[in-house]
Design brief:
Number of helices: 18
Largest sheet: 2 strands, antiparallel
Strand content: under 5%
Shape: globular
Structural class: mainly alpha
Helix content: over 70%
Number of strands: 2
Strand order of the largest sheet: 1-2
Distance between the termini: 24 Å
Order of helices and strands: HHHHHHHHHHHHHHHHHEHE
Length: 481
């Protein structure tokens, strides 16, 4: 009788690596959200800010589609370290533009383009780690845990903005340089943290004792890898999920501009932002753990279909609420409340606050469902890296269009109509995609030629699973069908 699988070292557990990815994301994109929460990234010119965001997401869209190749070529350690560094460079550039001299605006726009590359690297690595290091019944919870840790950055940023803006004097309205320097230091610390603690996928052990089967790309098969990425644009799963993917980041411009930015005074915007990201992090964990991964609900196919119904109902409800508020009050560009709404206003604050809180809830469950259904399509790290790359690339393309629309001065009511339309349009094709989800992944989904490596003695298991097939530390399970 064989002994039970030994518990792997803490750093090599899939759950640990997912938490590490969350910490790195907290230091990078989490604090980026905090910086954005300061208003125009802390600068004074909303036109430059919109141009920066459009440039960022255009770059992100291009490199995001290639992030699967980056992951398979270089691995997560390099991608996450490099990605975190680009966030630090962005923060420095925004400080020079917003607080030193407007002549640094071109530098800030260039930094935004570089950040698009870095964000593609970091998010591509994170998505692949989160989805491929989890067991089939853990993918929702893994993403929920990651999303919670990541969103702590936005929570902290909102509280910083609240504290900075409680002083009504003009001097108190300025963002303290120490805020930027702190953000830069933490973003740089994220890069160092990733370089120390992120390990190769082939060294990671899942919760059931199986090793992550991963084959890094080499220069000789780069052309083949790029061909596989190109095939994603004809992949039925990705095409069906494209409307969902576009919608999943399109709404931020409206929510943070047309609601939080338009209606509330500066301290209240900071408080609202903190509440938004807190609700987003908590609700992602709840739906991931207690619904999408809950086998008592039914098989994965049933959860995919019923999960879509649940997510769509909540999401559509949010946009109906927003439509009633937007067209009922008439607030828009050039027609703001006078005075702006404050958290001290009681009942008049509660109604738009609840709308913004609802936005945070809907944001998180849409994102969590999107990641979960992508993770349900495949278990292979190599294939998941391509799927995640497609997801982040197309998602960023949608965000780029949203910022271009904002840049051109479109009224928020029309931006809202677009958001509502996208929320309705993604439901039918996503439903078809959900019907393809299998209750159990196939051996081909795992990768490594239909073989799964079960680690029996992690101390004797090195980072090359191919060499270990001959070792007594590994039991090879083959498909007997």
């Amino acid at each position: 009788m064989e002994s039970s699988t030994d518990k792997p070292p803490f750093l090599r557990r899939g759950s640990t690596q997912n938490i590490i990815a969350g910490v790195v994301a907290f230091c990078g994109p989490g604090l980026f959200n905090a910086l954005q929460g300061l208003g125009n990234a802390g600068g004074s010119d909303p036109t430059v800010s919109a141009a920066m965001n459009a440039t960022l997401y255009a770059s992100f869209a291009v490199f995001g589609c290639l992030s699967g190749w980056f992951f398979n070529q270089f691995g997560p350690k390099i991608l996450m370290s490099f990605g975190a560094l680009t966030y630090s460079f962005y923060a420095i550039s925004v400080y020079l533009w917003g607080q030193v001299d407007d002549k640094f605006a071109p530098m800030a726009i260039v930094a935004s383009a570089i950040l698009g590359l870095g964000a593609a690297c970091l998010w591509g690595a994170q998505g692949t780690m989160t989805l491929s290091y989890a067991l089939e019944n853990q993918k929702g919870s893994f993403f929920g845990i990651f999303w919670f840790i990541f969103n702590l950055g936005g929570v902290i940023g909102g509280l910083i903005a609240l504290g900075l803006n409680l002083n009504p004097d003009d001097e108190g309205q300025a963002v303290n340089p120490a805020t930027y320097f702190t953000f830069c230091a933490l973003m740089g610390a994220g890069a160092v943290f990733a370089s120390v603690f992120v390990i190769r996928p082939s060294r990671v052990i899942k919760a059931d004792g199986t090793a992550v089967v991963f084959e890094e790309s080499t220069a000789s098969n780069t052309r083949e890898e790029l061909k596989e990425i190109g095939k994603l644009f004809a992949n039925k799963h990705m095409l069906l999920l494209t409307p969902l993917i576009i919608q999943s980041n399109f709404f931020y411009t409206y929510e943070f501009g047309g609601i939080n930015g338009l209606l509330f005074d500066a301290p209240t915007r900071g408080l609202n932002s903190s509440i938004y990201w807190a609700i987003s992090g908590i609700s992602s964990y709840v739906i991931g753990v207690y619904y999408l991964d809950r086998e008592a609900v039914g098989g994965r196919n049933k959860r995919a279909i019923q999960g879509l119904i649940l997510v769509s109902a909540i999401n559509i409800g949010q946009w109906i609420y927003a439509l009633v508020w937007q067209f009922g009050t008439g607030y828009d560009k050039g027609n703001q409340p006078t005075p702006l709404i404050s958290f001290r206003d009681g009942g008049s604050y509660a109604v738009p606050l609840l709308l913004f809180m609802y936005c945070g809830l809907a944001d998180s469950i849409v994102q969590t469902y999107a990641y979960w259904i992508i993770g349900a399509i495949s278990n292979s790290p190599k294939q998941l890296s391509r799927y995640v790359g497609y997801y982040k690339g197309v998602q960023s393309l949608g965000a780029c269009f949203a910022w271009i629309i904002e840049w051109q001065g479109a009224l928020y009511k029309w931006q809202l109509v677009i958001c509502f339309t996208l929320a309705v349009l993604f439901i039918p094709p996503t439903y078809v995609a959900a019907t393809y989800i299998k209750d159990k992944g196939t051996e081909d989904d795992i990768g490594g030629g239909g073989k799964e490596l079960v680690v029996k003695n992690v101390d004797n298991f090195d980072e090359n699973p191919v060499e270990n097939e001959e070792s007594s530390a590994v039991k090879e399970i083959t498909d007997q069908a």
